[in-house]
Design a protein that fits this description.
Helix content is 76%, strand content 0%. The protein has 14 helices and no strands. It has helices at residues 2-17, 20-37, 44-65, 73-101, 107-117, 122-125, 132-159, 164-186, 192-195, 206-218, 228-242, 249-269, 275-306, 316-335. Helix 11 (228-242) packs antiparallel against helix 12 (249-269).
């Protein structure tokens, strides 16, 4: 009975320490597992195995960190890696998860919606401007999405301490990716390049060939609504604008705004997305910046009131620099 009591206390500690961002990840993978268990699509069991591995890593991370089995810098490192890596891995697995869950493709409906509501489909309207230079320009920015992703996420993961800014950013961007992935299940499609007919062939040089290779080898293929290429960079740009009084955002938000405008244009010019995909991605990004900022205010007050453990923990790189600096000072003192 004492063992059961200790286990109950341990489980209660995990649940009490769970943050909002933890529950977003937990619900996300629970939905994926449920959808895969309820279908018999191609590679269903292989996809289920992959998702269960991701889910296990996430739950193990919560067990270790929220259960306070480790604290300090190790809790921070384990959490930041264990929280981010399963969600990133799940995107690359969508290539098999999406067809395993549904065989539908709603390209016709998405195109019909654009023509009925907006009376234009950008990829068709811009077909006359397709040349090697224009294709290369937009292909460059389309690939720039990954650089913007790295330049925004990696500094937060490695340099930021457990403050309101990091909690807002972390919760919002996790919600952006997980909500987008789940909406792919609801509104699957391949994109205009497959549904529509164009007068000009899309040709380019190095950047366009790199885009094609990346899409065909690592893309999820039916991941169009909402546009993640629109949503994630837009989230970064709006987040930077909201916090523009702080460094470095006071300098980065205009750069981000320009780059995001080109990436959004690229998603349509290169025939990957319908206009409604772009609007949905932009709307979701706006929601995730504004909504989760309010939620984080509530969560900060709750965690302080209950004296709960940190969400993200110590900033790893500054901690390492401080330790190295302290060792250097100690070594000099010994020499003296």
């Amino acid at each position: 009975m004492q063992t059961l009591g200790r286990e109950d206390t341990f489980v209660r500690r995990i649940l009490r320490n769970m943050a909002v961002v933890d529950w977003i990840g937990t619900v996300y993978f629970a939905i994926l597992v449920t959808c895969l268990l309820s279908t018999r699509g191609p590679n269903c069991w292989g996809s289920l195995k992959d998702v269960c591995i991701d889910y296990s890593i996430l739950l193990l991370t919560f067990t270790i960190v929220r259960g306070e089995l480790v604290k300090g810098i190790w809790a921070s490192v384990i959490y930041r890696i264990g929280m981010v890596s399963p969600i990133v891995a799940s995107y690359f697995q969508l290539r098999w998860i999406l067809p395993a869950i549904t065989s539908r493709a709603l390209d016709h409906q998405l195109y019909a919606f654009d023509m009925r509501v907006f009376h234009v489909e950008p990829s068709l309207a811009w077909d006359k401007y397709v040349t090697v230079p224009t294709v290369e320009w937009f292909a460059f920015f389309y690939l720039g999405y990954f650089l913007i992703l790295a330049c925004n996420v990696l500094p937060f993961v490695s340099l930021a301490g457990d403050n309101k800014l990091l909690r807002h950013f972390g919760t919002g961007i996790v919600a952006q990716f997980t909500m987008t992935h789940l909406l792919y299940l609801v509104v699957p499609g391949f994109g205009p390049f497959r549904e529509l007919h164009y007068e000009h062939v899309m040709v380019g040089g190095f950047w366009w060939k790199t885009v094609l290779e990346g899409v065909h080898t690592a893309g999820a293929l039916k991941d169009i609504f909402p546009s993640l290429h629109t949503g994630a960079p837009t989230f970064f740009a709006i987040f930077a604008f909201v916090h523009r009084k702080k460094v470095p955002f006071k300098y980065t938000w205009p750069i981000l705004a320009f780059c995001v405008s080109q990436i959004i244009g690229a998603t349509m010019f290169l025939r990957w997305h319908y206009l409604v995909d772009i609007i949905a991605g932009f709307a979701l990004a706006t929601f995730n910046v504004l909504f989760w900022g309010r939620v984080i205010d509530w969560e900060l007050a709750r965690r302080e009131r209950l004296a709960l453990s940190p969400v993200f923990g110590i900033a790893p790189i500054p901690w390492l620099i401080d330790r190295l600096r302290a060792r250097g000072v100690a070594a000099r003192d010994q020499d003296v």
